[in-house]
Fold:
Amino acid sequence: MQSKHDLRSHGIQQMRSLDPEELAVKSTRVIANLRTVLEFANAKGIFTCLSYNNEVDTWELADELASTPGKKVYVPRALFGEVQLHVVRYPCRMEALKMGLRQPAADATRVPPEDVDRAIDVALILGVLYDRNRGYRLGYGKGFFDRFLAGRRFPVIALALEQQLAENLPVEPHDVPMDVIVTEERVYRFGEE
Structure:
């Protein structure tokens, strides 16, 4: 079995090679399929990753949801000197990191960690690769999302392209599986009988 490092490198290279027009079409299909998922459709508090690096585009969705009455949108802020992922209400002032990722500015108001489970009804997660059989995610290797999602009460939905699905990714004890993976072709559910 390939190492996580090798799989991650291959997955990132594959994502970067995707044509922007093809990505836009596939992202639209992913979001259309997401709208059929009840956990998402019924959610009032929605945590979403903000895309970069040829991930499924979530920016338009975040803006749409933030302007929808009755919906609240939350986005992540990672501080690389820390291990904790912070949750920030969106829209907010953004800053660009040198790797091209945009995230809430340092002065953005964070949701206190003890209030996160009350604020969020569903989490939309992005990544590099996903295990099509078990729902595990391979991210960028920092562990922010596994630590953030561990023990949470809300459902976790991954947004991915079919080409990001793999068979039997290597899994470690700290890895947190997704409840649902939504691609441009279908919805995959895990952990249900």
About this structure: Residues 117 and 152 are 7 Å apart (CA to CA). The mean pLDDT is 93. The two ends are 28 Å apart (CA to CA). The helical segments are 4-16, 20-34, 38-41, 59-66, 116-119, 144-149.
